[in-house]
Amino acid sequence: MQLVLISGLSGSGKSIALHVLEDAGYYCVDNLPATLLPPLVRQLREEGYERVAVAIDVRAGTSIAALPQQLRDLQALGVPTRFVFLEARDETLIARFSETRRGHPLSNADTTLAEAIVRERGMLENIAGLGNRIDTSSLAGTDFAVRVLRLQARHPPRRRPGLRRALPAQPALRSPAPPAHRPRSGGGALPRDAGGSAQDGGGHPP
Fold first, then answer.
1. Of 32, 11, 13, whose CA–CA distance to 184 is shortest?
2. In percent, how much of the chain has pLDDT > 70?
């Protein structure tokens, strides 16, 4: 099994990255608590899945702190793993969120969007350097897709049943993804997803 783990700031393009990998033959899971990563990998490996991509971020709560240890455990089990951390400049993230109705997962009546972004950066600081870092602030849709596809192996895997979405040709990255953790088939400037959202899940965010 080959595993790609995607994390990063809300609005940086994680959902789009999953869509790109899904179209490349990966079985994709979004918003998974880090503590559930090892059992998920074991189950999918037993079922014969060859390529898996998982997104883990602050929507999963404090479990994100367990990610470094989970990565070490997976590597000890001999699971080839690539970690990708997506980020963008504050002004880019704010612009992307302004283009969608989705809110930042850490913002509320007492926390502004700018404050939520700063808080999120702090929460993810310990995992940002675990692997490849990609700043999506000025990446066009096609450029972003190419960067993501470089993470996959050269030989296409056998197709597995799963939910699929068509990735539009050109648009740009944009706003947060829905806070639900669920298997999926499978901003600013990245491509929009089939539902008209850009970046991470709907209009742009995750």
1. 32
2. 73
> What is the pLDDT, as a whole number, of residue 139?
87
Residue 186: both structure tokens together: 């499978």
- Strand order through the sheet with 27-30: 132-135, 81-87, 2-8, 51-55, 27-30, 182-184
State both tokens at 109. 């009546």
175 vs 200: CA distance, rounded Å: 6
Q: Residue 62 and residue 8: Cα distance in Å, rounded? A: 15
Q: 4 Cβ partners below 8 Å, 6+ apart?
A: 21, 26, 51, 52, 53, 54, 81, 82, 84, 151, 152
Cβ partners under 8 Å of residue 146, min gap 6: none
Higher pLDDT, 40 or 152: 40
Per-residue model confidence (pLDDT) at position 95:
93
